[in-house]
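Subgroup meeting minutes
Present: P.N., E.W., G.H.
Scribe: E.W.

1. P.N. recapped why we're keeping a running log of single-chain structure predictions: easier to compare across weeks, and new members can see raw inputs and outputs side by side.
2. G.H. added today's entry (238 aa).
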Amino acid sequence: MNAFLGELIGTFVLVVLGNGVVAGNILKNTKAENTGWVMITLGWGIGCTIAVYISGFLSPAHLNPAVTLAMAAIGQLPWSQVPSFILAQMLGAMLAAFTTYLHYMPHWAETEDPSTILGTFSTAPAIRDGFSNLFGEILGTAILIMAIMSMGQNNLGAGLGPIVVGLTIISIGLSLGPTTGYAINPARDLGPRIMHQLLPIPNKGDSDWGYAWVPVVGPIIGGILGAIIYNIFIGLVA
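Output recorded in log:
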């Protein structure tokens, strides 16, 4: 139960702060409107750091099904725990999307563009290209997983791990994120996309389910590949 709550609470904080900074940037008539991509990446990275600090004493603070599946694939998490971790992550992300909706309530009616509204919930590609979009999500998630796994090898001081994860999120966002919006986390994208479908938002349009598989499948593939590649690398140099 502690691990379930940790993953739920941590994912909630991650997504409410991450989608919150996106909403502040692109919804109409907020005080942060048009502050740009750098602000979004900083918001997601700092939000991730805070989320890991909040939840890390209850669970491993995966906060991401791609991380959970990667750890299970290399034997660092029992497969029996995977369903409960992913359920908690999905519920946390969905609750965060609903909370963000409530927080920005007056600004939905001011925003007329459906793609902008969807962008406050889930990701979308700058240029829609199936291979490129999928490859970007695979690459970004693989790098995230390798960064997470490298912490044990670098003997980080107590409490520094969440900061390194946050910096990694910022770096991936600045370098690789502009093509797809860098979901690198199936729960972060799918949970809020479901809430976008369900919530009564003015001018919202459709939830772009034709693209929704990319930010789910890509991170899962990238996470498992990243973990396997890193394990092989460590095995060769050990």
